[in-house]
Amino acid sequence: IAAAVDIWAQGPAALPPPRQPRTPVLPVEGERNVLITSALPYVNNVPHLGNIIGCVLSADTFARYCRLRNWNTLFVCGTDEYGTATETRALEEGLSPRELCDRYHAVHADVYAWFGISFDHFGRTTTPQQTRIAQDIFQRLLARGFLLQDTLEQLRCESCGRYLADRFVEGTCPFCGYAEARGDQCDKCGKLINAVELKNPQCKLCRGVPVVTPTQHLFLDLPKLEGQLEAWLERTWATGDWTANARHITRTWLRDGLKPRCITRDLSWGTPVPLDGFRDKVFYVWFDAPIGYLSITANYTDQWERWWKNPQQ
């Protein structure tokens, strides 16, 4: 406290000179380098105060603090643009998914600029860099034997000539009988649903009756990684700053055993799967979207790996 009072009494003249901003911001040897991301807002709506308060404002506050400390700081964010929610909203508005994303990305950028959020770069996930990096990660997983193929049963609308993602199906909830349950969840009883479990399913696009059809998909072979993951977690739990809640949830997943996780979808709007037999599919958005942090940085600087593959700094 005494030191703080002494510095305060000396006034602003005692402060070190502010860091001169560089473009692009890159890690500097021997300095404290801080990379800040905030959760990528989904693009199919106008952002509201909850979006800003929930993640963007806290990240912005921390970024400003880091810059005041003269730490070398990069703050990136962007819109998350792939997935069925975008396709659904585009159909409602009579636009292509690309047109919808272009419209709402501009709206998001304008709103955050109006609030003065201090992003160094505000990008998006529908870029060539996203495709390149996501497909590269996929190929590495494939080469190392961490992917497997399996058959899923999905609803297919023969009238529309397409497999129906969860959001494109409505029907009667098998648990509570609610007549307007979605293909992923019942809004009345709150239970999660597999679309093929719905009674009296209907295609939301044409109101036709879909049929259950088998289709091949790719899965992350998470059980193969379970042993390595458990050993890594034990080390980081011993030395890191995990919250009690995060530890509890992670232990529960491991206790129940990891399951293979599907990473592909029968959609057209997404990052294409670069593998014969699956080229008519795209990556599931929850495989694809987290890679957006890397690709947005890559769109900011071609030296993005200095931020994302630099554990020493």
UniProtKB/TrEMBL annotation:
Is Aminoacyl-tRNA synthetase tagged as a keyword? yes
Where does the Methionyl/Leucyl tRNA synthetase domain start and stop, copy by copy?
34-311
Give this protein's Gene Ontology molecular function annotations: ATP binding; methionine-tRNA ligase activity
UniProt xrefs under Gene3D superfamilies: HUPs, Methionyl-tRNA synthetase, Zn-domain
| GO CC annotation terms, alphabetical | aminoacyl-tRNA synthetase multienzyme complex; cytosol
User: One Pfam family, short name please?
Assistant: tRNA-synt_1g
| CDD domains in the record | MetRS_core
Asked whether the UniProt record includes Ligase among its keywords, one would answer: yes
Which keywords belong to this entry? Answer: Aminoacyl-tRNA synthetase, ATP-binding, Ligase, Nucleotide-binding, Protein biosynthesis
Alphabetical list of PROSITE patterns matching this protein: AA_TRNA_LIGASE_I
Which terms does the UniProt entry file under GO BP?
methionyl-tRNA aminoacylation
Catalysed reaction equations from the record: tRNA(Met) + L-methionine + ATP = L-methionyl-tRNA(Met) + AMP + diphosphate
> Domain of life here?
Eukaryota
Give the family per the record. Answer: Belongs to the class-I aminoacyl-tRNA synthetase family.
Report what the protein is called. Methionine--tRNA ligase, cytoplasmic
User: Gene name?
Assistant: Mars
